[in-house]
Amino acid sequence: MTPLSCFTLRGEPATREGPQGSLLHEGRETGLRIHAASLEAQFQLQPGFYLLFFTDNSPYEEALQIVLLDARLQFLDGLELGQPYTPGILSGIHAESEQRILFDFFEGTRLLLSIHPEGRFHLIRGLPPFARPLEGRFFSRHYLTLQEVRGIAKEK
C-alpha cells in the first residue's frame, strides 16, 4: 500500500445533500462526482486499485467516505461513516498490510478496513452501525469490509 498525491478534488457548488466535487487524476477529469469537501488520504494498492478517503469538512457532524477505484478509475466499492451530531477526525492511518489499513475516525474507535481484490458476495453486509455502503449495490461484489478492533494501539 503506497501513499499517493495524484488525485485532487475540485470543489463545486454544494447541493442539498452537502458539498460535492469532481475527482481529478493527475489534473485530468475522471468523470466521478464525489459528495465531499476534502480529499484526506489516498493510496495505491496491488493489483492496481486506488483507495481514497474524503470528508465533508463539517466539524460537528463529520462524515467519512472511503472509495475504492480500479486501475481504469472506475468505482468498485465505497463506504460512508457518520453519526448524527458526532464529530469525527481521520487520524492514525497505518497500513497493516497491502490489503488492510487501520485508522481512527470517531474518538476511541479504532477501525480496520480490509480490501478484498477478488470481491465477495454478501446478502447481508456486516458493517458497524455507523457505516453504510455508498451505493445500494445489493447483488454485486463487495471489495471493502470494516470492523472495529480492540487492543491495537494507535500509531503516533
Mean pLDDT, all residues:
88
Q: What is the helical fraction, as a range of percent?
A: under 10%
Overall tally of domains: 1
- Shape from CA axes? globular
What is the structural class? mainly beta
Q: Which parts are unreliable, with pLDDT below 50 for 5 consecutive residues or more?
A: none
Q: Report the sheet with the most strands, covering strand number, pairing sense and barrel closure.
A: 6 strands, antiparallel
How many β-strand stretches? 13
SS field, number of helical segments:
0
Order of helices and strands: EEEEEEEEEEEEE
* Termini separation: 19 Å
Q: What percentage of the residues does DSSP assign to strands (E)?
A: over 45%
Give the neighbour order of strands across the main sheet: 1-5-6-7-8-12
Rg calculated over all Cα atoms: 15 Å
Structure commentary:
There is one protein chain. The protein is mainly β and about 160 residues long. A hairpin with a 5-residue loop joins strand 10 (about 100-105) and strand 11. The chain has one domain. The protein has no helices and 13 strands. It starts with a strand and ends in a 7-residue tail after the last strand.
